[in-house]
Amino acid sequence: MTLEDWKSCFEAYLEQYFLEGDKAHDIAHFNRVWKTAYKIMQFTDADEKTVLTACYFHDIVNLPKNHPDRHLASRRAAIRARKILAEHFPSFPAKLYDGVTHAIEAHSFSAGIDPKTLEAKIVQDADRLESLGAIGLARLFHVGGQLGRSLFHIEDPLAQHRYLDDLNYTFDHFQTKLLTLPNRMQTEKGKKMAHHNINYLITFMSKLCAELRGEYYQLDKGALEKFSLNKEIYYK
């Protein structure tokens, strides 16, 4: 079977059996992660079938961000994926099981598992790029709404005089996690894509802060200076 054949088989399986409870982690998300991973792994020695499979099953078990076992979700997804491959895709090479399951386990930010293989590094980068740029912005506020979090702290959106609290304010998640992602990327291609997309989020932050002050035709210079000019990692 070709790579495209496997992709079609995985999508057909997911459409029949996967329950899309969280639209930020649905089949469309799996497909986007695969497309990004494919771009990253061009001109590398990564095993394409391993990367494809991990992308399509990395969130087959997905727990809410506020679930006490959230950090275990990727491990459970890896176990479920191996079982699915064995039961529903008997022609899938068993020799790739370990590579697929490791890539799935290591993709998760909350799991804290270091990716040991090139395939795992690619999948992790591709999944984290879903948190940046325009798609990342849409997914962030979608998840925040699901969890009942406020959009932002109305009096101090950038947490200049308070502690960051992304359990209550979605906007705080920019600083607690998203702005740190470019420097956590595993591949050179992933880093380049992340550094580009983080600029979009920084621009959004500065625009939101300006609008909260009633300034609709400009950006907040303080936000730009804090997160751009003084944070050179975002512009490498």
From TrEMBL:
SMART domains: HDc
GO molecular function, one term: hydrolase activity
Keyword hit for Chaperone: no
Domain HD intervals: 26-132
Pfam families given in the database record: HD (PF01966)
Statement: the UniProt record of this protein carries the keyword Hydrolase: yes
Superkingdom, taxonomy of origin: Bacteria
Keywords assigned: Hydrolase
NCBIfam families referenced in this protein's UniProt entry, alphabetically: PRK10119.1 (NF007515)
PANTHER family assigned: HD_PDEASE DOMAIN-CONTAINING PROTEIN (PTHR33594:SF1), SUPERFAMILY HYDROLASE, PUTATIVE (AFU_ORTHOLOGUE AFUA_1G03035)-RELATED (PTHR33594)
The protein, known as: Putative HD superfamily hydrolase
